[in-house]
Design goal:
Blueprint lengths: L1 H14 L11 E4 L6 E10 L4 H10 L8 E7 L6 E5 L13 E4 L5 H16 L1
Antiparallel strand pairs: 1-2, 2-3, 3-4, 4-5
Length: 125
């Protein structure tokens, strides 16, 4: 049942135009309305690196799909903020038809907070 809900959510996000992608990468930018600041960044997630990567798989019900690692793109600056989760080695996960797309608010607040902190960690290295 959860798989069907997840698939439905993915289809709805695609239908709503969530797949519009900004040209910027790993930068703050102003959204189309010119008011909010957002984040756009990529994470190469290794499950052994941080428990949040396991939590994300639990919240998305993808624990059987990605056993060791995956890649994420986080975009909180779009009109409808979103996260894309796909294969670790995919050269362009945003365009991968097999990738999973989620509304930013689909994730729990602790996961969203951790992802934004993780982005700062990336920028420090």
């Amino acid at each position: 049942m959860k798989t069907a809900k997840c698939a439905f959510l993915i289809l709805m996000l695609a239908a709503l135009g969530v797949l519009r992608l900004p040209l910027q990468f790993t930068n703050n930018y102003t959204n189309a309305q010119g008011t909010e600041r957002g984040e756009y960044f990529r994470i190469f997630a290794e499950l052994r690196d941080d428990p949040v990567f396991i939590t994300i798989l639990g919240e998305t019900n993808l624990q059987d799909v990605f056993l060791k690692n995956y890649q994420m793109v986080v975009n909180t600056g779009d009109k409808v903020p979103f996260v894309v989760i796909g294969e670790f080695g995919s050269p362009d996960v945003e365009q991968d038809p097999k990738a999973f797309r989620y509304d930013w608010l689909f994730f729990s607040q602790p996961v969203r907070d951790k992802l934004l902190l993780y982005k700062k960690k990336i920028m420090l290295h």
